[in-house]
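Example 256, ligand indole-3-glycerol phosphate.
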Amino acid sequence: MKTLEKHLKNINKVFIPYIMAGDHEKGLDGLQETIDLLANAGASAIEIGVPFSDPVADGPVIEQAGLRALAKNVNLTDIVAHLQAVSSAVPLIVMTYMNPVYQYGTDKFLSALTETAVKGLIVPDVPMEAQNFITDFIGDKDIALVQLVSLTTGTERQKELVKNAEGFVYAVAINGVTGKENAYSDELDAHLRQLSLLSEVPVCVGFGVSSLSDVERFNKVADGVIVGSKIVRDLHEGKKDEVLAFIQSATQNNNK
Ligand SMILES: O=P(O)(O)OC[C@@H](O)[C@@H](O)c1c[nH]c2ccccc12
């Protein structure tokens, strides 16, 4: 079992904040500070986004964060160099579209990550059928390739996806892009319960999670949550205390 899965299975309810690499007044030099803030607040793991010019699954908040990072000339080469230099008390998960990885060299990229705190990878634009472009290079490295499961995924395909799942299953709670709040369908909870029954790895819910009541709701039907836009927005607006308080409240039952 890979480190990411082992780590998350030991946590009562998983909380994974998402940040955009380089979206900090100090650019990538601010990465260590943000990782420490999130880990100290109680994050179970941290998802780090790679800025990309054509982020098809990203809503406006994440897209703007990516544009700010790109304006600082943040690229995958610098991100990898910084990931090799930072330390993290919790596992890191890199979320990137395939294009930057392909440009960098998939083999070189994954080899470079083995020397870092990165224990997971999310590549939303590579479907299950094409994942051998990544898994061939992961080989026996301790990096979990996280599977995204959407609401519209039928049961048979869900079964296939969870069979391949490593680290955790990313349950996408909304059809569409990141950052849409208050848009959950009525069938969502039943869908998540079913997915949790199918999956041996933890199921975490993301897309639109932005309040403590969302966190409570999903903690009842899954193993935890991923929060992107809310965290990215608050950090950009300098609201570190709000981020700290939110994560502390969302994870307080983990210490009981
Ligand atoms: O921003 P939200 O709605 O809280 O959703 C998390 C999301 O931002 C993060 O996990 C993410 C950012 N870009 C993505 C692309 C695909 C899948 C997931 C992501």
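Summary: The first helix runs from residue 3 to 9.
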